[in-house]
Specification:
Number of domains: 1
Helix content: 25-40%
CATH superfamily: SCP2 sterol-binding domain
Shape: globular
CATH class: Alpha Beta
Radius of gyration: 15 Å
Strand content: 15-25%
CATH architecture: 2-Layer Sandwich
Strand order of the largest sheet: 3-2-1-4-5
Structural class: alpha+beta
Number of helices: 6
Length: 139
């Protein structure tokens, strides 16, 4: 019952925290491909799906796939994935700006739902080299 109440309160808060209409999750997801460092990934394969809900134009799924030293982003959900993150665009924007800690947020409030490997986000970020002027805390 307590978990249900926390989830309900979070949904109500998220409805009030609407993201700016000019914020596009795809713009930031494309930065994953831009900042991908093949040397860090080596021969590792990883498929991560980001799915956004209750976010207007940002609703939908995007798949980040790493294989053979390359990283790609495609609109839509891959049939097979290592991990899937389900959240609102506002939650993602707050993670990008460092206002929310990805690991603590997910476990304490349930703002992000995981399917599959819960460590895939950390692994994905380990394969990125963010420039100092990237303007994001993590992707």
């Amino acid at each position: 019952m307590k978990q249900w109440l926390l989830e309900f309160a979070l949904r109500q808060k998220q409805k009030k925290m609407r993201v700016s209409p000019d914020f596009k999750v795809e713009t930031y997801l494309e930065k994953i491909v831009e900042y991908f460092d093949a040397a860090k990934a080596g021969d590792r394969s990883l498929t991560v799906v980001y799915e956004f809900h209750d976010s207007g134009d940002n609703d939908g799924a995007w798949t980040v796939a790493i294989a053979d030293g390359k990283c790609s982003l495609e609109k839509g959900e891959a049939e097979r994935y290592d991990s899937k993150f389900y959240m609102t665009a506002e939650t993602y924007r707050r993670i990008l700006t460092g206002r929310l800690d990805f690991s603590k947020l997910t476990y304490s409030t349930g703002a992000i739902r995981f399917f599959g490997n819960t460590l895939a986000h950390s692994e994905l970020n380990a394969y990125l080299t963010l420039p100092k002027n990237a303007g994001v805390a993590g992707l």
